[in-house]
Write a structure and sequence with these properties.
228 residues; mainly alpha; 8 helices
Length: 228
Amino acid sequence: MEFMDGGTLSDVLRAVYLEEGQIGAVCRECLQGLRFLHSRQVIHRDVKSGNVLVGMDGSVKLADFGLCAQLSRERSKRSSRVGTPSWMAPQVVRGEAYGPKVDIWSLGIMGLEMVEGEAPYQREARLRVFELIERNGPPQTAEPQAPLGSPARLPAVLPAGRRGQALVCPGTAAASICDLRRSCLQPGCSDHLSQASAGRMERTRLRLRKTPCPATERSGEGHACSSV
């Protein structure tokens, strides 16, 4: 099995915000992986940053195929509620018949995750997440007016002298991701992780304020769940 020495995309997102070109590079590589799976009638069903691996050479790989489903002529759809709550498509949440397109929804949620630092409703309890996905439809960014990579979107994530350095896109996808991952491993970045987490909690609170709802129990990050 190939060793990816850069860790997961989730590790990167806990350290820095991504620049637009870097987000595009990750999405392109993931789409290539999904095209391969879908051409063979396979649904991944758990696309998220924790299942995307990066290498120090700038490579990006889709991983964790434990929840994949093989489609066939006799069974061209699936209906099991499988995946990680915040990244699940509405059809999966409702237990409706679905096909490979649910992976595209999950990739879109991962795109929002790369922009915001965490997935929509990620801090909510599992059943609450299902309710919000069904009721709200496609989620939106909390601050759509702020350009990606601008100081307004980088509160306390990196030291002031390194904010530009970690978010510069050198021109190629591989170099961009490679430089990004190396910048995450440089001294000083870890000192700001707790401040970054506080900022993400505040953005989550502002996002949920736009959708009034009864108070529910809060929980940690969602984990994979399934029901046949």
